[in-house]
Amino acid sequence: MIEFGDFYSLIAKGPLSHWLETLPAQIATWQKGSHHGQFKQWFNAVDYLPAIKPERLDLLHSVTADTTPGLSEGQQLGIYTHLKTLMPWRKGPFDLYGIHIDTEWRSDWKWERVVPHISSLAGRTVLDVGCGSGYHMWRMIGAGAHLAVGIDPTQLFLCQFEAVRKLLGGDQRAHLLPLGIEQLPELKAFDTVFSMGVLYHRRSPLDHLYQLKNQLVSGGELVLETIVIEGDEHQVLVPGDRYAQMRNVYFIPSAAALVNWLEKCGFIDIRIVDVCTTTIEEQRKTDWMTSDSLAEFLDPQDHSKTIEGYPAPIRAVIVAKRP
């Protein structure tokens, strides 16, 4: 079973220490609970990976680790086989000892759109809500963050994160906890909170914004990235059963409406810093994610619409502060 004692020790003397009043019991409940039918297989894949200390580690420009001399073909094949067991890989890419994990999302493109507009992460404690495999957390560490904490209840993503961390030498600067945002108390301890690709999955988006606010220190920064539609501050799309084949999409506001929501929740210094259309080059099938992707979710005759006839995904980045 994946253990979290190192994380508890890490936060015991810092601004997150009061989290220890609730977190260990929540994790113990998770460890005793029912797990995905493939969890043991995923855990074994992580367990069988070699513990390697990279001689070259680049988290600033990518997530790349290598050693000199390079690994043998047999060693590479062993790592490749274990990592393939953890498919589908959605957020990345990763370059680990000559193995390129070409993920569904070019998450590096998103990061390049986000990072020029946010406060420096140097020395900061950051939270990544819905972090997936943890790709962006490693980029946050590369940008100077002191500690990156990710939360995501999906067990496959936890195993993917632990696999990458093992291949990065067991790096303790990033940690993923198998929790949802609704399980966090009002920590008020993070300098920066990221919520990227989460808001449209929440039944109550304003509650989500309040939950994010409650994790920030006074003056802390929220980085919110989500799907939006075109329109004025009154425009909000409420899709039917599916949006781009996703079932759990509830509210898609315009960027202007989202600014109003943030103001209503008490955020200040709200800025729309980037708006761009998601392309089939940024989200696509690969050898590491072989099921349908964005190309199959769009109208084949008109890529400006989803297969259901809604506006195709446009993603906005909004930066705001807690007073």
From TrEMBL:
CDD domains the record matches = AdoMet_MTases
Q: Which residues are listed as membrane-spanning?
A: none
EC class (word):
transferase
Q: Alphabetically, which GO biological process terms does the record hold?
A: tRNA wobble uridine modification
Q: Which reaction does it catalyse?
A: carboxy-S-adenosyl-L-methionine + 5-hydroxyuridine(34) in tRNA = 5-carboxymethoxyuridine(34) in tRNA + S-adenosyl-L-homocysteine + H(+)
GO MF annotation: an example? methyltransferase activity
Cite a single Pfam family from the UniProt record.
Answer: Methyltransf_9
| UniProt binding sites for carboxy-S-adenosyl-L-methionine | 91, 105, 110, 130, 152-154, 181-182, 196, 200, 315
Enumerate the UniProt keywords alphabetically: Transferase, tRNA processing
Transferase among the record's keywords? Answer: yes
Provide the E.C. number(s) assigned to this enzyme.
2.5.1.-
Q: Please report which protein family the annotation says this sequence is part of.
A: Belongs to the class I-like SAM-binding methyltransferase superfamily. CmoB family.
Spell out the NCBIfam families in the cross-references. PRK15068.1 (NF011650), tRNA 5-methoxyuridine(34)/uridine 5-oxyacetic acid(34) synthase CmoB (TIGR00452)
Q: How does it assemble?
A: Homotetramer.
PANTHER family linked: METHYLTRANSFERASE, TRNA U34 CARBOXYMETHYLTRANSFERASE
Role description: Catalyzes carboxymethyl transfer from carboxy-S-adenosyl-L-methionine (Cx-SAM) to 5-hydroxyuridine (ho5U) to form 5-carboxymethoxyuridine (cmo5U) at position 34 in tRNAs.
Protein name per the record:
tRNA U34 carboxymethyltransferase
Annotated organism of origin = Limnobaculum parvum
Q: What is the lineage of its organism?
A: Bacteria, Pseudomonadati, Pseudomonadota, Gammaproteobacteria, Enterobacterales
